[in-house]
Amino acid sequence: MKRKQLVQALDLLLQQEAARLTMYHSSSTACWHSYVKGYVRAKNGIYTHLRMEDVWLDK
Amino acid sequence: MKALAQSLGAILLASLATSVVAQKSGGTLRVPLVTSPPTGSLYEEVSVFVLQAFAPVFNNLVVYDEQDEIARPESIKPDLATSWSWSADNKVLTMKLREGVKWHDGKPFTSADVQCTWEMILEKRSSNWRANQYKEWYTNLKEVSVNGPHEVRFMLERPQPSFLSLLAAGWSAVYPCHVDGRVMRQKPIGTGPFKVAEFKPGDAVRLVKNTEYWKPGRPYLDGIVYRVIPSTATRLLAFVSGQVDMTNVATVTPQTVKDVYAQVPNAVCSSSGTMVSGAVLINHSVAPFDNPNVRRAISLALDRNAFVMSRQGEGRLGGAMMSPPYGTWGLTPAQLEAVPGFGKDTERNRTEARKLMEEAGYGPNKKLKVTFLVTPLTTFHIAGVTLTQGQLRQIYIEGEIEQKELPIFIGAMMKGAYTIAYGLPGAASTIPTSRSTTVSSATRFAITAATAIARSMRRSTSSRPLSIP
């Protein structure tokens, strides 16, 4: 909890000092055909779960 | 009771039968890319589309379990490292490496490759890279040593609970020591499940199955084709007409997903937090943006809620860290309410902003001239920069929008050759340490502050994994 408080205090400082102005955080919708199996899309980022070694096609 | 047991047994058998329906091997997965990867060298690039097309070529030392839909420390599993342990003072990470692994060119993978990769990142060894994008992640890494061909040690300056999470991130591939940077940009060599068959910038990346992959039975696919389709409408059409197997980011919205289901009733659609934020980037190393009151005026003038609306249901208020519900470190809208520019009283904010600008010497007869730099990757980039331009005009800041290709845009960010820019920077991990990357911070102040975050994190002596639900 202590670490989260530290991070949030610094985040608040960044916003108050207007150093890097965040307008919003985005989410993203993606779709795939039902025959694409074994693909799990990460819920907390788009920079992981990209190796595709477990993906197979049920065709 | 007996009937219930029989029913449960039947369900269990049915479930087993389903799972026994063997995964089928073969076929080529077709995936659209929003923009072309400039190169295939992960450590030189920042675009998610580079990672999408080339992550299957590589392995990490450790990796987030890709069958767990949350990338979290608890789901980190072995990859090229088979096991790891921390020293008693939490400053030395020792990893045992997988034996018998080969690079795609047939050379053996050893500890020298691991040492080489992180020494290139630390710039202790020549890499022939044109850029070193992830150096900021490893400012706490002092040295990497080897103990025989199958053991490495990462020596840290201070304990860093998040270090393993950085190694598990998508951008933490192990590079081959014997392959030149030029080759890694054009046709990278990895140990991963797929090999690069062809990379035609602007057109497509074709991967083929690595038949000598170290993981038994993987991969299932014969190959993957990533085709560059810049138009959102064309990507969507390609999906509903069956020309590609998946959409990509910036293609389907909460509004258009209904159309997708109408045309492809069996489509599987999922919404995720992206770790990408819309951001107005101010170069505060040049006047007048070195004046905190000018920056405050800009912040007051920008109506965050209008930007959120522009995302058509895929935006939410947040600060630097990934905001709830997808992230746990980020500030909530309630915490941000008192920060200039986050409140809903836009007119009052802009009145205060104009006063600050007038104090700084600007007014109706003396406008502050700027350029609004953007890379037009998606409609969201254009919408964001247009909103920025329009809203800042109300506080005497005027200028043209200048569109640049992504590599030029990033180059301008790195060199500080801009005044105001609009971008969608991302972070490669939810952990605060990863926010210190240059591209996710984009301004020197932010780098300093983000590094302060990282240092605060590292000071913790706890080796308990961070919880990221």
At a glance:
With 59 residues, chain A is α+β, with helices and mostly antiparallel strands. Chain A has one helix spanning 2-16; strands at residues 20-32, 36-37, 56-57. Chain A is built from one helix and three strands.
Overall description:
The complex is a heterodimer of chains A (59) and B (469). By secondary structure, chain A is of the alpha+beta class. Helices cover 25% and strands 29% of the residues of chain A. Chain A is built from one helix and three strands, in the order αβββ. Chain A has one helix at residues 2-16; strands at residues 20-32, 36-37, 56-57. Chain A has a two-stranded antiparallel ribbon with strand order 2-3. Chain A starts with a helix and ends with a strand. With 469 residues, chain B is α+β, with helices and mostly antiparallel strands. Chain B is built from 15 helices and 15 strands. Chain B has helices at 2-20, 48-54, 111-121, 163-168, 181-186, 232-240, 257-263, 292-301, 304-310, 333-336, 346-359, 379-393, 406-415, 438-441, 444-459; strands spanning 28-33, 62-64, 76-78, 81-86, 92-97, 141-146, 151-156, 194-200, 204-209, 223-228, 268-282, 315-316, 368-374, 397-403, 420-423. In chain B, the strands form four sheets. Chain B has a four-stranded mixed sheet, with helices on one face. In chain B, strands 4-5-7-6 form a four-stranded antiparallel sheet, with helices on one face. In chain B, strands 11-15-13-14 form a four-stranded mixed sheet, covered by helices on one side. In chain B, α8 runs antiparallel to α11 (346-359). The two termini of chain B are 38 Å apart. The model of chain B is unreliable at 434-469 (pLDDT under 50). Chains A and B meet through α1, β1, β2 and β3 of A and α2, β11, α8, α9 and β12 of B. β1 of chain A pairs antiparallel with β11 of chain B, so a sheet runs across the interface.
